Amino acid sequence: MSLVPTPSSAAARIELANRFFFRLYQCANMLHKTGTRAVQEEGLTTQQWAVMGALSRPRAAAGLAVNELSRYLMVSRQNLSGVLKRMENAGHIHIAPDVRDRRSRIVQITEAGRDVWINHALPKIHAYYEQALNEFSIGDITHALHYMMKLLENMKQLDQEDLDEAD
User: CATH assignment of 13-162, given 3.40.50.300, 2.60.120.260, 1.10.10.10, 3.90.1150.10?
Assistant: First the structure.
């Protein structure tokens, strides 16, 4: 006789949660690996892809402060710093002091970076999306996005609680 917990039990919930978060972890790792492979000919990684995507949005046309960019991408300034340095060295972005607050730095995508993004990286990224989401309907994608957003909000709440406890 197997001691399989009933679906409503706490043990089943923990087992499913463990599987869910492990699969999420695997997906994140595979996104980094296969996503980077998709744009490596353009000299980009998935982290740089995320930065260029953030900076190419219309509301970021005047650039973003490093703090604002790190909050948007949900990465630490320390983790973002090395990525930005490599991107600046490659000519994809420009970092300059903020004229309104000299302590802050503004990150802007350069014309060369915009060309790489629009004409070279985006077509490859779109092809990557098509392959990664093969056999997903628009409804499937919508539902997955809905649940990911719920999870993200819960995790942001956990993060805020951790920050509040640290104060």
Answer: 1.10.10.10
Q: Dihedral (C-alpha) 94, 97, 98, 101: value to the nearest 10 degrees? A: 160
Whether 4 shows a pLDDT value over 80: the answer reads no
**Cα distances (angstroms) measured from residue 93 to each of 9, 18, 88, 115:** 51, 39, 5, 12
pLDDT (tens digit, 9 = 90+) per residue, 121-155?
999 999 999 999 999 999 999 999 999 999 999 99
Which residue bears the tokens 């499937």? 140
CA distance 124 to 42: 10
Half-sphere exposure of 36 (CA within 13 A, CB side): 9
Q: Provide the residue type at 136 as one letter.
A: F
Q: Domain coordinates of the chain in residue numbers?
A: 13-162
Identify each DSSP E strand in 47-143 by its residue range. 64-65, 93-97, 105-109
Residue 35 contacts residue 128 (beta carbons within 8 Å): yes
pLDDT in tens, 78-106: 999 999 999 999 999 999 998 888 788 99
Which pLDDT band, with edges at 50, 70 and 90, does 3 fall under?
A: low
